[in-house]
Amino acid sequence: MWFKKSNFITVLIVLVLIYFSMRITEFDLTKFKDFRNMIDFLAQWWPMDFSKLPGMLEDTFETLAMAFLGSVFGLLIALPISFLAARNTAPSKALFQFTRVTLSFVRSIPEIVFGLILLTTLGLGPFPAVIAIMFHNIGVFGKLVSELIEAADPGPQEAMRAVGAKNWLANLFSILPQIWPNVLSQFFYRFEVAIRTSLILGFIGGGGIGQRLFNDFKTFQYSSVSLDVLIIMIMVIAIDFLASTIRNRVI
Amino acid sequence: MIQVKNLTVRYPNMKTEALADVSLSLEKDDFVCVLGKSGAGKSTFIRCLNGLQKPTGGEIHFDGQDISFHNEEQLRKVRRQTGMIFQHFSLIPRLSVMQNVLTGMFGYRSSFKNLIGWFTAEELALAKKVIEDVGLSEMAYRKVEHLSGGQKQRVGIARALAQQPKILLGDEPVASLDPGTSNHIFTLLTEMHERLNLLTIINVHDIELAKRYATRILALKDGKLIFDGPPEKFSDSQYRETYTSEPQTAYFDAGI
Questions:
Q1: Do the Cβ atoms of B2 and B167 come closer than 8 Å?
Q2: Which of A51, A72, A215, B78 is the most exposed place for a label (fewest CB within 10 A)?
Q3: What is the DSSP letter of B96?
């Protein structure tokens, strides 16, 4: 009664995909029989070593600054571009297509690739990491914001044109207030993602708490690793909390 | 004020014309109501008058100038003298009543001043005055999404008045309001029409409202102008002709 023949075929296809993916990834739960090793390993994480806490906090703020700059600059640059990449506000069809293609090209390059390229030219440290995050975010924000622009209520846009406002001004005033809360929540989401990304970029020499975590791990200082991990968790939760507070105030 | 000659609009991919060969002349002391079924061409007609819709044929003379060949920049100068109100109010959300009204002056000011929000004392005084005219002084600094439908349309009217327009256009401005509120809005429009000597052209579905407030009725059917005259001359049979396409039905004979 509830199931059609096509449902069974879908289930079959998914099952086949699961099977092959497990083969490829050597997915095997019996490997957990050496679980004791992990407990022994994690036991070395205790007790936490607080002696390097000031340096860790400094690195944490570096990570936050990297993520913040990368996403703020990304958004600021993407905002005007988004109006060119939205069907309803693009000045010409050719420009619209060009912007769209460019944005998806930029978006298709992962931050880590940007990072690896930039690190060789700009040297180690947080600056190339910021640029890497920014570039990728331009691509992401450009897509997200242009989609918000396309979904905006056309009524106010027509009203602004009827008032005799210049086209670009009419678009700006009628669309930006409508999409602003959504833009803001996208921003906070991308900020959180940027924090995680900057950790990974730290692994390749991009600075911040990520680099410290990587170094501590590679030099077997597990009692510092545990504190690094704890600080990262607190940072992510704090940003999440802050983001929802600010969002609630705006909406 | 406005002369329309053989105005024709044909949308791409449409078999019939949205407006077919409409000619008429509108004067300052007219309070015009445009009647017609959905799709009869009312909206298209109104939108042609301020250049939101390009005619595919014919001429529109605005204060003696033919605007049918105007470019965007010239049309902007026409639009800023033409206030317009909408069925769904089309206010800018998240902005206050005052801010929405001030956007009505955008056509006359430099983009830079508009962008940073710098207004002269006279401009602010004008905004205050039109908000008072529509009876919303107490709500001037409230965000528009907190207002009722009738109040929103008053903001729409205030925004149009802030343009100090020569003409006021309305595209079904009371279609989403209840009958009492619709009457209030029409009373306000009449008041403004008389006080400011403002040519007013309103699309409306409700024949009662049209008969009560209009000084002149236009009826459109399938893009053609089938009636143009004072409300008392608009007979029941003409009303039926405007709103039916099939042979007259008992439903229409019974009520009106």
A1: yes
A2: A51
A3: B
User: Which CATH number does the domain B1-81+167-178+199-256 belong to among 3.50.50.60, 3.90.420.10, 3.40.50.300, 3.40.1190.20?
Assistant: 3.40.50.300
Cα–Cα distances (Å) from B102 to A44, B109, B171, in that order, read: 67, 11, 21
Contacts of B117 in chain A (CB under 8 A): none
How far is B159 from A41, CA to CA, in rounded Å? 70
Interface confidence (ipTM) of the complex = 0.88
List the single residue in A with minimal CA-CA distance to B76: A164
Chain A residues with beta carbon closer than 8 angstroms to that of B123: none
A7-61 pLDDT, tens digit per residue, is: 999 999 999 999 999 999 999 888 888 788 888 888 888 888 888 889 999 999 9
Mutation for A interface: B44, B71, B89, B92, most A CBs within 10 A: B92
CB contacts of B164 in chain A (<8 Å) are: none
Please answer yes or no on whether B91 and A159 come within 8 Å at the CB atom: yes
CATH architecture observed for domain A56-250: Orthogonal Bundle (1.10)
- What's the rounded Cα separation, in Å, for the pair A57 and A225? 13
Give the A:B interface size as CB pairs under 8 Å.
79
The full set of domain ranges for chain B reads 1-81+167-178+199-256, 88-164
Query: Quick check: A177 contacting B, CB < 8 Å?
Result: yes
Q: What percent helix, strand, coil does chain B show, rounded to 5?
A: 40, 25, 35
Cβ separation of B95 and A155 shorter than 8 Å? Answer: no
Nearest partner of B122 among B167, B76, B162, B80, judged by Cα: B162
Rounded CA separation B98/B48 (Å):
29
